[in-house]
């Protein structure tokens, strides 16, 4: 099996997707429960690589709900247990800071679109890692596609066909 390097992952309620870089392609391991599906996007099949921002709503809403509960506990315990109230107050502040960080920095998504398959990676609060993965995916696809274009041009020149005709589909043979 080829050596794999994990580039990123994304997860939802009932699934996890991990994206790996191999010598010839990006491999996507899709895990749903106990079922694992492996898909591939070959470097020469890459059509589009995108990087865009998103707001991670689920962690933001969960942190907000817990912050409200912790604040209510802190208010309820302020007269009876000062230490417990202080602990809940600190937890509330930490969760509020997390919500602010999620709103301000958000997350980024890197999508690698092939002809038939798509690899998608979420990077929450890791903008630098998203930029690195985006640049690497673009570089790998570009290098492979440029090498294929050079080989096609060499074959076309060796066969006596001009480079502009090399990209055209062959003419149908036979009478019309």
Description:
This protein is of the alpha+beta class and 176 residues long. It folds into two domains: 5-55 and 106-157, Roll (PH-domain like), CATH 2.30.29; 57-105. It has helices at 57-77, 82-105, 127-158, 163-166, and strands spanning 5-11, 16-21, 25-32, 35-42, 48-54, 107-113, 118-124. It has a four-stranded antiparallel sheet, with no helix packed on it. Strands 5-6-7 form a three-stranded antiparallel sheet, covered by helices on one side. Helix 1 packs antiparallel against helix 2. The chain is elongated and about 90 Å long. Mean pLDDT is 85; it is low at 172-176.
SSE map:
Elements (H helix, E strand, L loop, with lengths): L4 E7 L4 E6 L3 E8 L2 E8 L5 E7 L2 H21 L4 H24 L1 E7 L4 E7 L2 H32 L4 H4 L10
Antiparallel strand pairs: 1-2, 2-3, 3-4, 5-6, 6-7
What is this entry, summarized?
The chain has 176 residues and is an alpha+beta fold. It contains four helices and seven strands.
What are the defining features of this structure?
176 residues; alpha+beta; PH-domain like; 2 domains; four-stranded antiparallel sheet; 4 helices
